[in-house]
Amino acid sequence: MKTNDRMKEGWALTWDDERGFGVIGIDEGTYVAHASQIAADALCRRFLIPGERLSFLPIPRDSAGKTNRAYKVKPLERPPIEVPFDYHELVVVRQWTGEKGFAVRPLGGWLRFFADGIITEGIETIKVGTQLWVVPGPMRGSRANKDWIATQVQVCYDTPEVAQEPTDPADLAPDTVMASAFERITAAQ
Question: Which of 17-31, 116-130, 169-183 has the weakest average pLDDT?
Fold first, then answer.
């Protein structure tokens, strides 16, 4: 594989949270950037914001000769984030064995979580698609700079599969009104 010794500058065109990659555009064409090649922020999130300016090391074609690749991707104008002491994230379970699992983060990337880190009731209701309220933190050991773990895991309200809503919002309790509104918003996305 031949590398270009010069860093190039381009613009983020797209970002796919689920698949963990984005496309960078320059005058000579486009380059695919995988999340593993993007500089992490203070919360170890790796993502691109469409329209942001980037520097990267271009690789003209991958080993199969199909795609231009971008390595060592760094946002040029993104300000550093300040992490509040009470920071939490709402994540979505993508894999769960009953003892451990993975959840997708809101701006891309994954968090590992374990049964012994769950601090609320509801462990028996966890399945793919369940939302968790978590505090992300680095793992200990040799993988600490790449893998992050969910701590203080709280299982969020899980709606029944067949929900019948009253037609008059006045008939709903305040908690149900919020859950109902949230369901409509997420269903529309």
Answer: 169-183
